[in-house]
Amino acid sequence: MSHNTSELVLYPSNGAKVIVGMWRLTQKRNEFVHVYWNKAWWVVLGNHQEHLLHYFDTWALVGRNETFKVLLILVVNQGYITYQFDIKTAFLHGEMDANVYVKQVKGFKVPGKEGWVWHLKKSL
Hints:
Elements lengths: L5 E4 L8 E2 L1 E9 L5 E10 L20 H14 L22 E3 L13 E4 L4
Parallel strand pairs: 2-5
Antiparallel strand pairs: 1-6, 3-4, 5-6
C-alpha cells in the first residue's frame, strides 16, 4: 500500500484476530440532482477491534505538549487572537503500538497471496 502504511504477510498463526474493512461511497450532486462527482475509499472497521488486543489508547498525539505550551505563551505575550482548525492529515503518520491485521480487499487481492493479510504499520 502507498505511504508504507502496511505490509502483506502470511495469516497470523498466533491466533490474532483479523479485522475487516468496507467500501465507503459518496456522490456529489448539482442543483439538478445530477451526479457530477463519485468518490470511493476503503476503510478499516475499527469498531471490530478489541481493547488491549488491537489498541491500548483511544487518542492519538498529533503534537508535542511543549510546542503547544510555547504557542500559548506567544499568544498571551503578543496579544494574538487564537483560532481553532483541523489538520485532515494529522492521524496519517501515527505509528501503531499493537499488531493489527486486516483482510485483503475483495477484488484487489494480490494474485498468489489470496490467503495473506495486511499487517498495519501506521494508522489509516
